[in-house]
């Protein structure tokens, strides 16, 4: 047993070192002056790095999170590092459909354009429970909340995007999507023996969502792709439990990518010519194949139908959103 554990650890460590060595950096010098960007979870970890990068390129950056003090402090940090004063913090709790709808309504009423939406916010494997909206907490924060947010912001994204410069939606997925269950119909439940499976399911959901929305938005001047940050040292690994989280985070800090390195693919999707494709999966600043489960059209349809029902939208609502 000890030998098996040792082999597994050695393989894992070798893989992490390999992906750290081979990490790509976005080399684009493209400016974003006059552009508006929203980064959910843009107040810490990968999201903060992404927000800082887009701010340094001259964009108006709206960072969203449910922690007001963190949001205010992060805004100050982004302004200081980028020299860009056009940074805004807005409250958004993705575990609440009410909060998502209020945030989207505020954006639609106050912003004249939206060039890039980065669906980055997420939780790791905290408590496994159902929210007031009747959704698994991890899935709602990581996926269902972003699903609703993205659809509600489509009118502004569509008005902003052009044939030569489409508006961009970036879903922050994960290598973990490869370990997700294929039982999409039963994603929204509690009682998983391994909570990591819920996290994996949420990350596959973002990939399935991107593929279906890309199909539905064909010709609408809005594209959507998924970014895989690899194993990046962020505080999300501390969410399992205090002891395990501390151990995991300590090991990851030694072997994994930094938050800067992990953010590069999402940045690349925001500024590079990768915007010519849609519904694809990227890692290390290049397009790669997602897990085979991501190409199961039956799963794509089932998840879309389930998600629409859970966020209380229907087909007529969607048609209105892409016709506005």
Molecular structure report:
By secondary structure, the protein is an alpha/beta fold. It has a single domain, classed as 3-Layer(aba) Sandwich (Rossmann fold). Helix content is 47%, strand content 12%. It is built from twelve helices and eight strands. The protein has an eight-stranded mixed β-sheet, with helices on both faces.
Let me know the number of strands: 8
CATH topology: Rossmann fold
Q: Helix/strand/pairing class, anyone?
A: alpha/beta
CATH architectural name: 3-Layer(aba) Sandwich
Output the strand order for the largest sheet.
Answer: 3-2-1-4-5-6-7-8
Distance between the termini: 60 Å
Name of the CATH first level: Alpha Beta
What count of domains describes the coordinates?
1
- Helical content stands at 40-55%
* β-strand amount: 5-15%
Instruction: Please tally the helical runs, counting DSSP H or I stretches of 4 or more residues.
Output: 12
- Round the Cα radius of gyration to an integer and report it: 19 Å
Sum up the overall morphology in one term: globular
CATH level 4 superfamily? NAD(P)-binding Rossmann-like Domain
List the helices and strands and how they pair.
Elements: H1 2-21, E1 36-40, H2 45-56, E2 60-65, H3 68-82, E3 87-91, H4 97-110, E4 116-119, H5 137-152, H6 154-160, E5 167-172, H7 195-216, E6 222-228, H8 242-255, H9 259-262, H10 264-271, E7 281-283, E8 286-288, H11 297-310, H12 315-321
Parallel strand pairs: 1-2, 1-4, 2-3, 4-5, 5-6, 6-7
Antiparallel strand pairs: 7-8
């Amino acid at each position: 047993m000890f030998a098996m554990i040792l082999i597994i650890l050695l393989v894992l460590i070798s893989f992490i070192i390999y992906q750290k060595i081979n990490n790509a950096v976005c080399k684009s010098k493209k400016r974003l002056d006059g552009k508006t960007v929203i980064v959910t979870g843009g107040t810490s970890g990968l999201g903060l790095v992404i927000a800082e990068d887009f701010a340094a390129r001259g964009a108006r950056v709206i960072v969203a999170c449910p922690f007001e003090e963190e949001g205010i402090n992060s805004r100050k940090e982004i302004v200081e590092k980028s020299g860009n004063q056009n940074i805004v913090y807005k409250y958004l709790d993705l575990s609440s459909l009410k909060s998502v709808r209020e945030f989207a309504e505020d954006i639609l009423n106050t912003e004249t354009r939206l060039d890039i939406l980065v669906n980055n916010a997420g939780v790791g494997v905290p408590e496994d429970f159902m929210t007031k909206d009747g959704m698994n907490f991890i899935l709602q924060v990581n996926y269902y909340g972003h699903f609703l947010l993205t659809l509600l912001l489509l009118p502004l994204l569509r008005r902003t995007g052009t044939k030569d410069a489409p508006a961009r939606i970036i879903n922050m997925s994960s290598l973990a999507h490869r370990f997700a269950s294929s039982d999409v119909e039963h994603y929204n439940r509690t009682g998983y023996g391994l909570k990591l499976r819920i996290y994996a399911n949420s990350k596959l959901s973002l990939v399935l969502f991107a593929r279906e929305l890309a199909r539905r938005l064909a010709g609408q001047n809005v594209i959507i792709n998924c970014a895989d940050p690899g194993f990046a040292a962020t505080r999300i690994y501390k969410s399992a439990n205090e002891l395990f989280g501390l151990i995991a985070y300590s090991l990851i800090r030694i072997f994994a990518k930094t938050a800067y390195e992990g953010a590069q693919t999402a940045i690349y999707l925001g500024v590079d010519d990768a915007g010519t494709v849609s519904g694809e999966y990227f890692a290390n600043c290049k397009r790669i194949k997602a897990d085979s489960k991501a190409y199961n059209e039956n799963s794509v349809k089932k998840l879309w139908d389930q998600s629409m029902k859970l966020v209380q939208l229907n087909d007529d609502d969607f048609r209105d959103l892409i016709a506005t």
